[in-house]
């Protein structure tokens, strides 16, 4: 094995995936329109987690940082949606909100958002079982 296979230029790039998130958004022929989702880097993921921290009272009344999971999930989902463009001003205005994370929550029903979040996590490798990956490496 050579270290060169771990160099940035040799890493395979993940392609955006098209997924039907909702049956409610249809094209001109009446077929559900696909959303395009991408994977994000851990560097961006860390930034999203950092932006989603809130302060809660800890022992002795001291403020303790805590992850606001709902804010984090909204930011992560918004960062992974390539199409529709959640940053589009007209789209946000049509729902009466500002921000990509806010508009995606307003656009979708609760189950649709949960399915989108699950697909985003899958695309980003959160569904990979480490024991399965370990078995694959052993079998090679």
Automatic annotation (TrEMBL):
Q: Which Gene3D superfamilies match?
A: 3.30.2220.30
The lineage's top-level taxon is Bacteria
Matching entries from Pfam families are given as:
Phage_TAC_5 (PF08890)
Q: Which InterPro entries match?
A: XkdN-like, XkdN-like_sf
Give the protein's recorded name: Phage portal protein
Q: Which organism is it from?
A: Paenibacillus herberti
């Amino acid at each position: 094995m050579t270290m060169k296979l771990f160099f940035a230029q040799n890493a395979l790039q993940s392609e955006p995936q098209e997924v039907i998130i909702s049956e409610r958004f249809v094209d001109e022929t009446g077929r559900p329109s696909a959303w395009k989702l991408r994977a994000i880097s851990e560097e961006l993921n860390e930034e999203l987690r950092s932006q989603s921290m809130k302060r809660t009272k800890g022992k002795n009344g001291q403020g303790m940082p805590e992850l606001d999971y709902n804010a984090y999930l909204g930011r992560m989902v918004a960062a992974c949606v390539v199409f529709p463009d959640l940053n589009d001003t007209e789209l946000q205005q049509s729902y009466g909100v500002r921000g990509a994370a806010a508009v995606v929550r307003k656009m979708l029903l609760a189950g649709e958002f949960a399915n989108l979040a699950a697909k985003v996590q899958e695309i980003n490798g959160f569904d990979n079982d480490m024991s399965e990956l370990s078995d694959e490496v052993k079998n090679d």
